[in-house]
Amino acid sequence: MATIDIKRSHSLAKADAKTKAEEVAKNLETKIGIEWKWDGDTIRFDTPKGAAKGVKGELRVTDNDVHVLVDLPFLLRVMKGSVEEKINEKLKGFAEDQYVRDLEIPARRGDIVDRRGVAPGQELQLAFDAEQAWLFAA
Hints:
The protein is an alpha+beta fold. Helix content is 26%, strand content 31%. The strands form three sheets. It has a five-stranded antiparallel β-sheet with strand order 1-5-4-3-2, covered by helices on one side. The chain has a two-stranded antiparallel sheet with strand order 6-7. The protein is elongated and about 55 Å long.
């Protein structure tokens, strides 16, 4: 059973989501020395040496979400909260690509326009997490 289990939805094309997942894996390969490989739509990784020795898991990409499972060795479980924060930070990249564009909501009544003064051409949905709010195409 995984020590950390995080799932994030996305609206990217599956190929784009897989590209982002690979960027995350390459970044972690450089920073903490993970070894990773694709297995279908899943990146399987482990860390055979270094400070994160013994960490293993997978990053699974589907049409609608990204699912991260990480198994921390006993001695690193005390850092579970920090590791979860870092994973959530890396997964923000999947949500950021869902932006329609930067919007300015005027203080007075009127139309919503982007910074170029152009009204969005589609219906928007507002989503929140603990730190930010995003506008998505509905």
